[in-house]
Amino acid sequence: MSLPENITALLFDMDGVLLDTETAYTEFWKDKLLPLLPEDDDIFSKVKGATLKDILDRYFPSPEMKEKVISLVDEFESRMAPEYIPGASDYLSKAVRAGYKTALVTSSSNKKMKKIYSLYPGFKEQFDVTVTADDMIRSKPDPYCYLLAAEKLNVPPARCCVFEDSILGLKAGKSAGMYVVGLATTNPEEMIKPLADKVINDFTEEL
Q: What start and end residues bound the annotated signal peptide (predicted)?
């Protein structure tokens, strides 16, 4: 666990960091949601890491469109059965054994998390604190969610390490004043490198 010596808490995003969901989400967006939007070549970097509420407010403001998108997302997420990002499960277990405080900080809803917990018994118990979309007053890239997790852990932001893959999430971690490890699971290394203190492809690499 070769992180800076001052780090005492590890804050993990979930999608694209611990669980390999981003490929499926990208295909879902392309197939189901992109046809509902004006053409935008940069849409994925704008929405990945954001809460569904933020996405709806920005891109699907009408009540009818919101209802349609929520229905599509709920149906898609009900069928999800993602695998762990390589090495993620072992790394998380080692972190807990090493005495780090841990937090899950995800833009996923409580409803989705119930599905994840049913798929992975014991997953929830590996975190001292969980922050979901339902707890977020402001969505990433605002640092609110990471600062809230640090507060709940009673750890100063400067002693926290964030693990993120999305542009919005990386910006949130940096804005929170935390050490940031970027995972090149969703975006290429050259895109996330300016926003991270360290970049890895997955958790099989030595940090």
A: none
